[in-house]
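Q: What would this chain look like folded?
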Amino acid sequence: MHKYLIKTPWLLRALFPNYVWHIPSKEKVVYLTFDDGPHLQVTPWVLDQLKRYDALATFFFIGDNVQNHPELYKKILAEGHATGNHTQHHLNGWKTSTDDYLNDVKQAAQLIDSNLFRPPYGRIKMKQARGISKAIQSSKPKIIMWDVLSADFDTAISKEECLSNVMDHVRPGSVIVFHDSEKAFPHLQFVLPIVLESLKKEGYEFRKIEHLPL
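A: My prediction, written as structure tokens:
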């Protein structure tokens, strides 16, 4: 049994309505998101795939990685994608004090200029969530969760299962999670081109989350 949920249940979304789980749309639109980069090998590959399908995406970056690869971060912005804060050191909010957590978010905010924030592992305490606005210096912060998890990070599942996780659950307005990380790359290499090709054929458009009227 997996220790994660592929499709975020409605009850969880209802319990935390201030978080963005899904972006309702009457159009065929999906929001691809990538966590944990930028990675020197994986992220450029992802950018090439997105460009092939005129797809825009949102990258939730770890500040430490942005610090190590600033030119790659600039390239992502130059190609029209959105970025979001994913903490400086990929902290688990449930296992971290509120002060330490928010200081880490604030450190990442010095490198990542965005009002979008995604907590690593999707784990954040209510008190931490209330402090995000000040930590990222935004009057309108958006905590972005998801409603479809690819589980590309899970080496115990097959690449076909990873693909099914996305294609069996996607719908208009879905926020889909992938990872531009070394661990996820074997699955991502197989899944991402098929998802882009299949959804494009179905008439979907791939948009970034930045500047949406959420």
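The mean pLDDT is 95.
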